[in-house]
Amino acid sequence: MDAAGHVPRKRFSQNFLVDDSIIHAIVRAIGPRAGDNMVEIGPGLGALTVPLAAVVRPLHVVEIDRDLIARLREQFPDGRVVIHEGNALAFDFASLGSRLRVIGNLPYHISTPILFHLTASAAQLQDIHVMLQKEVVDRMVAMAGSSQYGRLSVMLQYRFTLEKVLDVPPACFRPAPRVDSSVVRMIPTPDSPRARDETLFGRLVAAAFAQRRKTLRNTLKTYLGAAEFEKLGIASSARAQELPVSSFLKMADYLAARSA
Fold first, then answer.
1. pLDDT (tens digit per residue) in 138-190
2. Looking at residue 40, what DSSP letter applies?
3. 3-state DSSP call for residue 33?
4. Torsion angle, CA of 108/205/164/83, rounded to 10 degrees?
5. How far apart are CA 96 and CA 41, in angstroms?
6. Last residue of some domain: 165, 188, 211?
7. Which residues contact 234 (CB under 8 A, 6 or more apart)?
8. Cβ neighbourhood burial of 220 (10 Å; 0-12, 13-18, 19+)
9. 213 and 124 in one domain?
10. How far is Cα 88 from Cα 219, in angstroms, rounded to an integer?
C-alpha cells in the first residue's frame, strides 16, 4: 500500500511517481499554459495531475482503475479535471479536438501499443510528453546505424520528431520498478513526406526488421528483386538498421506505384 492508502495493481503496471524534483522537472518540460487542450493518460495518484490542473482547465484524464477514479472525483469535485473512464488503448483521442497535448506515465506493459494508437490521431496532436521504460525510449530516438534502431524507431520517426527529455531512476517511484525510466517528447511532423500506402509501408518495415541480422535481399525478397534495389539506389546487402526512414518510404512508394 502506498502512502496515500492505495494498493498498486500489478495488472495495471502501477508505479506512482513521488519525487518532487522529478515531478517539477517534467512539468517544466511540458510547459503547460492556460488554454491548452491537454489529456493525461493514467493520472494515478495525481502527481502530475495536480500541478497541471492548476494551469490547464479543464484537464482531461484517462484512467482505468475505478478506485483511482473515485479518488480523483473526490480530489477534483469542481470540474477542473474531466475524467474519461476506460482503457487508453480504446480511447478516441481525436474526439478531444485539435492541438491536443498528451502527457502521462504510461503502463510499461502496453506502452508501445499506446504509442501506435496515438499515431492514429497524429493530425490532431500538438505534442506528446510521456514516461516509458528507458530502454524503449532509447529505441524510439535511436538513429539509423545504431544497434537500438528498429521498427519502433522507424514507425514513430516517420510521424514525429523525438527527443529524450530526462531519465528517471527507480527510486523516484512507489513501488520502485525494476527498470530505469525516461521522459520523451514527441512532436508531429505534418509536413514531412507520407507514404502512398501507409499499410504497405508498415508491412515493409516490419518485414525488414523481422530478422535483424539478415540483409534486405533476404528479408525483403518477396517485395523487391536485385534490379529493383539497384534502381532505387538501395544496397540489397544492407541490413534494415542501416536505412534511414526515407529509404523505407522510397521502397514503399515504389511498391505502391508498381501495384497501381
1. 999 999 999 999 999 999 999 999 999 999 999 999 888 889 999 999 999 99
2. E
3. coil
4. -50
5. 13
6. 188
7. 216, 243, 247, 250, 251
8. buried
9. no
10. 34
In this structure, the chain runs to a length of 260
pLDDT in tens, 13-43: 568 899 999 999 999 999 999 999 999 999 9
Q: Which three cell numbers stand for residue 99?
A: 492541438
The span from the CA of 186 to the CA of 85, in Å, is 25
The count of other CB atoms within 10 Å of the CB of residue 199 is: 10
Amino acid at 20: D
Domain interval for residue 184: 10-188
- The partner residues of 182 in beta bridges, in order of sequence, read 132, 167
How far apart CA 135 and CA 53 sit, in angstroms, is 30
Question: What is the full DSSP assignment across 88-125?
Answer: GGG--GGGG-SSEEEEEE--GGGHHHHHHHHHTTGGGE
Q: pTM for the whole thing?
A: 0.92
Alpha-carbon distances, residue 6 vs 3, 45, 65, 86 (angstroms)? 8, 9, 11, 19
Number of domains the chain is built from: 2
